[in-house]
Amino acid sequence: MIGLLEKLSIQKRLWLNLMISITFLLALAYSARLALIDVRGSTDTLAQIQQTQSAKISQFQMRFSNTLQKMNDYLLTLDEKTGQDFNQKIDDLKELNQSLKEVETETQDTHFTDEIETVLTNIKKTFNASLSLKNKALCDL
To answer: At residue 75, does pLDDT exceed 90?
Structure first.
């Protein structure tokens, strides 16, 4: 192999070095392009997850505010239909929380939605206990 290189003229050796260098640079450019495509795909996926999650969180926030308003209305009026609406809204929030959990599962973190589920359950329990106390107080009068 060394003997073959010694027989080549300087010009041919320079051309050979140039070809090896160009081949190496092309391989490097191709690898960089593949890495860029992979990163772009991951970025697009992450952006889509974030957009979906933000929309669902915004919707959850709006529904949560409406649910608290229904709860307050029911405590003030003791109207049976308002109570049913409140319970339905809590159940809707739990369903929306489950859909948030599906999005979080893609990012491997469900701690947030587990806490929300606990809070919603506690709100419903507290509300029912408060309602029972209010009804008992009204009956005692």
So the answer is: no
Round to whole Å and give the CA distance between 123 and 72.
Answer: 12
Instruction: Write the pLDDT tens digit of every residue in 20-68.
Output: 999 999 999 999 999 999 999 999 988 988 888 888 888 889 998 998 8
What is the CA angle 79-127-88, rounded to 5?
60
Type of residue numbered 20: I
| Residue 120 near residue 62 (C-beta atoms within 8 A) | no
Instruction: State the helix-helix crossing angle for 10-77 and 111-140, rounded to 10 degrees.
Output: 0
Torsional sign, CA 94, 96, 97, 102? positive
Query: Domain containing 101: what range?
Result: 2-140
Count structural domains, the chain. Answer: 1
